[in-house]
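Justification of resources, computational component.

The compute hours requested in this renewal are based largely on the per-chain cost of generating structure records like the one below. Each record pairs the submitted sequence with a full structure-token output. That output is archived, and it is also reused by downstream analysis tasks.
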Amino acid sequence: MKIIIHGGFFSESDQSHDVKIAKQNSLQEIAKKAYEYLESHSAFDTVAYAVSLLEDDELYNAGIGSQIQSDGIIRMSAAIMDGETQKMSGVINIQNVKNPIFVAKELMKEDDRVLGGSGAKNYATEHGFEDFSTEIPQRRKEYEAKLNNGGKGTVGCVAIDKNGKLAVATSTGGKGFEIPGRISDSATVAGNYANEFCAVSCTGVGEDIVSNATSTKIVTRVTDGMDIKQAFDKTFAELKTIDGFAGAIAIDKYGNVYHQDSYPTMVFASFDGEHFEIFN
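The structure output for this chain reads:
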């Protein structure tokens, strides 16, 4: 059993040492809680739980603390994928829910598993998700000042459970000040993908991740026989040719945990029950 989580890109830029320490402590605590949850739950249930904890922490740009778009409204996206069934579900540009990842998980029961905008919100309301504002004063202050600090932040989790099953979940509050209706990579297979061989969650510039099909390429290459490092190296080399900016976390079916980014600025934590690896 292993778990790896990420707290997005640029999370540490223009922020104090105290905030960096707070994020390190947060990531370690969430990774530990998620691993404890994994001990008695599936990888699928665990990645949703872990991402919900990240959504509930205003240090990150997902759920509470999400960025505000150019029209003053917060719209969030999230997706989850089960490596065993290879089914993915997600919400795109959903408003006024506390945990988009749980709405995405609920949609796994449906034939129509990816919903956007008002349709996603209506579905959430019909299934008992309460109306909830995720705006925090800091995001409003940034919006009013037309700032964009931390604007490429996303959160994600990849897990492998005691039965060797893989799953991935990813959630984002957007890049901030984007055109209303803009769709990120997080609720697509470019940014969130898993099968029985590998699972990957991405963060960074959504348009670059989609153009490069980053998660899908890595998983496909591992499926076709590449080791996880080779799959990452080849995919990120292709990303570089389009001047792309991204980071990714992954676990393969053998339990190998891997991460890579365009620059050393992705924040993540991994835990296997004994050892933490943390970068911020």
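The chain has a mean pLDDT of 92. The CA atoms of residues 12 and 20 lie 6 Å apart.
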